[in-house]
Amino acid sequence: MRVHHIIGRHLRRTRRTTIADKTAAPAPDLLMRDFTADRLNTKWCGDITYIPVGSTWLYLATVIDICSRRVVGWSIADHMRASLGTDAIEMAVAVRGGQVDGVAFHTDRGAQYVSRAFADACRRHGIRRSMGRVGSSHDNALAESFFQGLKRELLHGRRWTSKAQARLELFRWMSYYNRRRRHSALGYLTPVEFERRMTTSRTLSLAA
To answer: Which chain regions cross the lipid bilayer (predicted)?
Structure first.
């Protein structure tokens, strides 16, 4: 890169989105930085990030299946209330056909994730909450890495003035991420293709 005068993209200083609620009891850390899974719907992770739009912000919450790296749920809003996280969870449950009992969902200790509304949503679907420590990005490294990729590939050098346009571009990028972006951790398959092959292989094994 130095020989050819190529410079990597550097992320700007981030805006703080994790505001811990010190009065709420956190969930235990069920992952302990083990971001691997050999089956779908056993481990999910998620986080919230900010998206600059003109002089204001949108906030994006995600749910990622750790096995396939697929973004199975997301929510975009102009606030950081608990519904930002619960809406993302509800989408993930719907995408998975409602059968997610026992999955561990790992997040940070932000107020949205320790809220009663979020805990009730997880309990209703049989989702086990898992949380890392306050101020440790490594405890939720996969979710952090996803947002870093999004900001490098989609947000670098641009700033939207329309929330409608920002929402559309975010939707397009996540569709690209799931269906076209290849991952070395998946044998250079896309998340959707990786899931398809895994499901096909499991079906054939059961049939045999």
So the answer is: none
Q: What is the 3-state secondary structure (H, E, C) of the chain?
A: CCCCCCCCCCCCCCCCCCCECCCCCCCCCCCCCCCCCCCCCCEEECCEEEEEECCEEEEEEEEEECCCCEEEEEEEECCCCHHHHHHHHHHHHHHCCCCCCCCEEEECCEHHHHCHHHHHHHHHCCCEEEECCCCCHHHHHHHHHHHHHHHHHHHCCCCECCHHHHHHHHHHHHHHHHHCCCEHHHCCECHHHHHHHHHHHHHHHHHC
Determine the pLDDT at residue 23: 54
> pLDDT tens for residues 114-152?
999 999 999 999 999 999 887 667 899 999 999 999 999
